[in-house]
Design goal:
By secondary structure, this protein is an alpha+beta fold. Strands 1, 4, 5, 6, 7, 8, 9, 12 and 13 form a nine-stranded mixed sheet that branches. Strands 14, 15, 16, 17, 18, 19, 27, 28 and 31 form a nine-stranded mixed sheet that branches. A hairpin with a 5-residue loop joins β15 and β16 (about 280-285). α14 packs across α15. The chain is globular, with a radius of gyration of 25 Å.
Length: about 650
């Protein structure tokens, strides 16, 4: 860790460290740190300040005046700018700083360690040496913000205190919206506090549209993860996926710690599905990008606990979960008042919201791709002054708003936020949902036979088809176990085994389901409508309460027609026909067999530590499908079950 060293590399004694901190932090800032009585925090701050040499330092507590100071600094430092609607601000990331930098996001590992071929790693000492060079005087013209947060609800077994050191007021402001304040979480345990650490610098800045400042030296962008010291280093970037350390970067630290302690960190929504007589059953759900995760979490009539990351623990023989966050860093592209009424309502109100990489119109409003109304023909966006038809250096047209443009706000501004968002006990999880983009294989909703079958065939075998909008070629299947492959910090096989082992000690483990909102007919028609997911959710809620029966197929349990007919009528006021049921829930045997072949090949060639039980479960499913194929042919309609 870059902490006790000075620029010349010598050690700093405790007394000298305290004198140094008093000088650099000032009386008020030093007292805030001294109250924590934590030498590790003092060492971290000392090392970063000596290495990065900030012009000014602000130490924040949980106090409202400290939170206000951070927001005002984002405006004063020209990282954000006020918009016409009260509380709304705009932030631009640099033109070439618009996404997670997967190439330069690496784990720092000792020579004898390995995370497998799928994870990006480098030698730890080499990485720390490179960081020392990049970080030297990188904050010389900037203010350093020392911020304290808590992942998960405060005063909870789920709580993980975190310290963020950043010279970006935008990053600090965004994390104030996304996470619970955590200064008190450090006060409680004092010197024994075990915490995650994040060090970020936006680096040298350049002027962009509206006079906003963006990271200049993106060729020196680095995001390095040190699992040994549980610290993230992020340099020369502002984009949230690289700079908001407590988000997906903290997932890596969390997954690594959870694997040692027997709990789970998952890339999942957490929601309450409402049943009969006021009953609420909580579900988690893992979906790759562009597969309906947010629209599921925001389903009208249900309540949202979280839309992105959950911690799961076995407590009192049941699975309990919390939302790691308390805000939303969401993709804004395509949000409209018809399909996304709750998000739309929040975005149109005078609440504290940060918009990033959308278009700012001449009247100080924002426009994003797909926003209702007449699209503007000019404005200012992440490329500077923008006009319809503007092209980049390669001749490609620049859209008004980036497809990865975002909004950031607190969850509690949503009308459907669940009252147990901050419950330190978490909520009992009755169901786990896995969903991907699949045009030709999986039925719209299906329950696994048991925990092992579900984790392996629904979770570990999760794959999703790319869209033409993302890669230029539609239908390329991407392997993404539990929708978490980009955020793993342990080998994939070990991660799968860890999920399998979570079942131990649970008296009533959550039921496991798979959903597919993207099934097509042979002629290319979509077989699901956008809001049909409301019915699939209600059916799953009934299943976890043993209120409805199911038909057994070779791949899992599917709904009975009579139950769906009733739910479509009650929930969507729609008629649901036998013909629709037949098309949606026919088991596509040939396609399922092809998937098993793909998965078996992947587990044999790419996941070198695949648990043996994975191959056993896949072989058993293959045998059931082959027997059904012998009896019924390539397609098994539900009426024959």
């Amino acid at each position: 860790m870059i902490e006790e060293k000075t620029i010349r590399g010598e050690k700093v004694g405790k007394k000298n460290r305290q004198l140094f901190l008093k000088q650099r932090l000032g009386p008020d800032g030093y007292q805030k740190i001294a109250r924590l009585a934590n030498p590790a925090i003092e060492a971290l701050i000392t090392g970063v300040v000596k290495r990065c040499n900030p012009r000014k330092i602000f130490v924040a507590t949980d106090a409202q005046q400290d939170i206000r100071y951070t927001r005002e600094a984002a405006l004063n430092n020209h990282e954000e700018k006020d918009l016409a609607r009260e509380g709304h601000t705009i932030h631009f990331d640099g033109y070439f700083d618009q996404a997670r930098d997967k190439v330069h996001t690496k784990f720092l590992l000792p020579p004898i360690s390995s995370l497998g071929p799928e994870l990006n790693t480098m030698d730890r000492q080499q990485g720390l040496k490179e960081l020392e060079e990049i970080m030297t005087n990188i904050m010389a013209d900037h203010e350093l913000f020392v911020k304290f947060y808590c992942l998960g609800p405060a005063h909870s077994v789920f709580s993980i205190p975190c310290i963020q050191l950043t010279d970006s007021a935008y990053v600090a402001h965004s994390e104030d919206l996304l996470y619970r304040q955590g200064y008190q979480e450090f006060l409680r345990p004092g010197a024994s506090a075990r915490f995650f650490k994040f060090v970020h610098s936006q680096g040298a800045l350049a002027e962009a549209g509206l006079g906003l400042l963006v990271s200049r030296d993106v060729e020196k962008r680095r995001v390095y993860i040190d699992l040994e010291d549980e610290i993230i280093y992020s340099m020369n970037t502002q984009y949230g996926g690289n700079s908001l350390g407590l988000k997906k970067l903290a997932m890596r630290l969390g997954i690594h710690r959870a694997s040692q302690e027997g709990w789970l960190v998952e890339h999942m929504l957490l929601m309450g599905v409402h049943g009969h007589h006021g009953r609420i059953r909580y579900f988690t759900g893992a979906f790759p990008s562009m597969c309906g995760k947010t629209s599921t979490a925001m389903m009208d009539g249900e309540t949202i606990v979280g839309d992105d990351i959950v911690y799961l623990r076995g407590i009192d023989s049941e699975a309990r979960a919390v939302n790691v966050e308390s805000g939303v860093f969401g993709i804004i592209d395509g949000i409209n008042d018809t399909n996304d009424p709750l998000q739309w309502q929040a975005l149109m109100h005078p609440e504290e919201i940060v918009f990033s990489n959308v278009l700012v119109t001449k009247d100080g409003d924002v426009y994003w791709n797909g926003k209702p109304g007449v699209p503007p023909t000019s404005g200012v966006n992440y490329s500077g002054d923008w006009f319809k038809g503007k092209k980049d250096g390669n001749g490609k047209e620049i859209p008004a708003s980036h497809k990865n443009a975002r909004f950031t706000f607190r969850l509690d501004i949503l009308p459907n936020v669940d009252p147990r968002l901050n419950d330190p006990e978490g909520v009992t999880v009755h169901g786990i949902i896995y969903g991907g983009r699949d045009s030709d294989t999986s039925v719209p909703v299906e329950e696994s036979f048991n925990w092992e079958h579900g984790i392996i065939t629904k979770g570990a075998c999760l794959e999703s088809e790319t869209t033409a909008a993302t890669l230029g070629a539609e239908g390329v299947r991407v392997f993404n176990p539990m929708s978490n492959i980009d955020f793993l910090s342990i080998p994939i096989g070990r991660y799968i085994q860890h999920n399998l082992d979570f079942r131990k000690g649970l008296m009533h483990p959550p039921r496991i389901f798979a959903v597919n909102y993207f099934l097509k007919a042979k002629d290319g028609r979509w077989l699901n409508e956008k809001n049909d997911k409301a019915v699939w959710l209600k059916w799953m809620e009934q299943r976890v309460n043993d209120e409805v029966e199911a038909l057994i197929t070779p791949t899992g349990s599917i709904p009975c027609y009579k139950d769906l007919e009733e739910l479509f009528r009650e929930v969507l006021q729609k008629k649901y026909t036998h013909e629709q049921y037949f098309e949606q829930f026919t088991t596509r045997i040939k396609e399922n067999l092809s998937k098993i072949e793909r998965m078996t090949t992947i587990f044999k060639t790419r996941v070198l530590d695949t648990p043996a039980v994975v191959f056993t479960v896949l072989k058993e499913q293959q045998q059931r499908l082959l027997e059904a194929q012998q009896s019924y042919g390539d397609y098994l309609p539900p009426e024959l079950l």
